[in-house]
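SEQUENCE AND FOLD
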Amino acid sequence: MACFGGRGAPPVAEQDERLERYDPTEIEPRWQRRWEELGLHATDLTNTTKPNYYLLTMWPYPSGDLHIGHWYVKTPTDAVARYKRMQGFNVFYPVGFDAFGLPAENAAIKRKIHPREWTVANMENMRRQLRSMGASFDWKSEVVTCDPVYFRWNQWIFLKFYEKGVAYRKQAPVDWCPSCEVTLAREQVEGVDRICWRCSTQVTKRDLTQWFFKITDYADELLSFEGMHWPEQIRTMQTNWIGRSEGAEIDFTVAPAEHHPGGEALRVFTTRPDTLYGATFMVLAPEHELVATITTPEQRSAVSAYIEATKRKTEIDRLTATKEKSGVATGAHAINPVNGKRIPVWIADYVLASYGTGAIMAVPAHDERDYEFAQQFNLPIVPVVAPQHLAATPDAVPLPYVEKSDGAAVAVNSAAWDGTAWPESFTKAIAHLEQAKAGEKKVTYRLRDWLISRQRYWGTPIPIIHCATCGPVGVPVDQLPVTLPIDVDFKSTGESPLKTATAWLNVHCPKCGGPGQRETDTMDTFVDSSWYWYRYLAPKNELGPVDRKLVDAWCPVDQYTGGAEHAVMHLLYSRFFTKAMRDLGLIGESEPFTRLFNQGQILGADGERMSKSRGNVQDPDELVSRHGADAVRLFLMFMGPWDQGGAWSSSGISGMVRFLGRIWTLALDPHGKEPGDPNSGVLPAGQDQAAGEAAVRRAAHKAINGVGADIEAFRFNTAVAKLMELANALFPYRGSPVAGTAAWSEAIHYLLAGIAPMAPHLADEMHSRVQAAAGISASDPRWTSIHQCPWPTVDTSLLAESTREIPVQVNGKLRDKLTVSAAATEAEIEALALASPKVQIALEGRTPKKVIHAGGRLVNIVG
């Protein structure tokens, strides 16, 4: 293998003729073809001679063309793949398409074409674009979700989930997007305004019978991130989304009244059962099932009017903290289970039927919302928690007193647990409730089961047949996949277009043979992306969804890259699927991705997210045709820290083109001289050839050491900067005797190897020409791509600096900078500082009173 770079490597041959121009439009497509011919990026998944490294980036949705934001995700990840291969890893870097989804169906309606036709055309174009960026994907492992070869196993997994009770069907109020005409999972409703994640339309509620996955069974396990190197932000978002709360469920009994005998239980959940003595009223959601039953005749009209008014409000309207509290008394009362007191029952819109039990015990002394409500309607307020110093005078407690219990506060006005601090008061309250059979300790979660039903066509058909006799029956496994019919009507009706395909719809029940109908909902497309990395390992496997032997060898994924916007959808669903598939015995691990990196987002020049509708999308094809893929790749990596992103501007790409041109010149024309520069080709003052060679070697080893560390840490901008510094360090020696030495050849190899992960085409072109200059043609068995070369070895003895710069201050003001030996003592540095003409001028003849040394980093002379 001809990977030059050692001390004995031959120098680059002198370029006698006029230096040819670097032309990426010819060079880059040629190398892309060459890499495919060599099978350079195809991974032998059974190779055990190298350590495995599974690198994955979030796959694209084929909605049309790739824009520059897609490049921003994929080119740095590609640089990692290339770097890891050079490090000696057996790298698996696959690609595929998340090809089901609503945009394809909408395009079909708009263009009067089938979604598959639109999707296939887009995928073909995106494959071309991905290749044009020089991406080193293993294309033989491609997975496409709309291919029955893939979604057959979505259906198989669904049936296994159904057998285990992980998949189930129920009627429930669901979030509905009136624009997309589809149900949404809770995670797909964004922000306090409750808008659709896809189209930003205000989401409404509907009662529908839907399919769910029981993700809540894994809530506690999903709260553990042990062994996972994920951003703290993502872990916090998932933890908050799961929302584990430990408290108690308490039953308040409806008190008897003239119009009603009472006795029903009004169940509430609270994290503070120790404040139960302070519950002076109850509030029900207007939709609560007992409201109509318990409301007194005198209050019925007011309650009905309030319920109707609430129906016209959005959830965000109801929860806005700044709005004046509203509510209506039902006229009914409930019995506080710890003191037997009758407390009034109200309805108010700030309590939601969909959250918790739809009822709360109001403790106005210790809750701001309850306090405002009590003030508004003149309801009693009883403090039951007080700071230690006010325990004897609880009426002096400033209200509402909502400090977090941390032992500094104690229970007051609370009989059995008076004077106790948290958590003792909590424990005593639970014990009291359980003894009285009025409540019990309870853990609740904000997380809800995953709604997977979608009333659309372009998705995985749910493999269920509905029979009037047998109910929902799973399609037999040997009849999978259930494919999508072609003869459908895509008119917007709010129901699935599959209902119009009568020949497909009407079938026999697999259980009793009677008439049945297929399920017409399709699966949420997030199901497709919840296990795809396992399928990459065996995309054509017909024996099961995964190849367990390969999964055990390669998973979990070593490094995953993608956007933080997927924190509580794809990234959470993937973790759930991994655990559920583990419990089916399909895989052995419990987490999908060991390491996760979230890149920032490239915005349009207007600062908004790139989208065709805004007209702010940057087409990378146009940039590649003008500047070349390598220049675009380098520019994206040089823009700034990868995790920050920012507004797009192409103004710096020309600088990358010039940088690539400098590398071209250094590698192809080492003996050339700059026209009109009398110092070109002359060694720097005070250096002989040996010192020049040493300087060149030191610069190369220092650069490659830093570049490797930066790529490992995803600091691509500083990696590029270090290579620029190396090129700048080498240029003064071009045309000098140093340019004909092994040290120069080594430095050029280190420069090309360092740039190879980020500018792969130019690096391979230069490396190939270096080999040609040494008599190794492309047909020679010794010829090799630079991407097959090992990452250069660093001589750590060359990393130590031989000199250092010491700023010199006089009375705190900078007066000079000294270049001294790295081994210089404080006495030597002080002598040089005092001898400095600039320092002597600043002292104006005064004798220094003191010389302060700041750890060899700075000298301050006081005089």
In short: The radius of gyration is 35 Å. Residues 169 and 486 are 27 Å apart (CA to CA). Residues 689-712 form the longest helix (24 residues). Residues 7-18 have pLDDT under 50 and may be disordered.
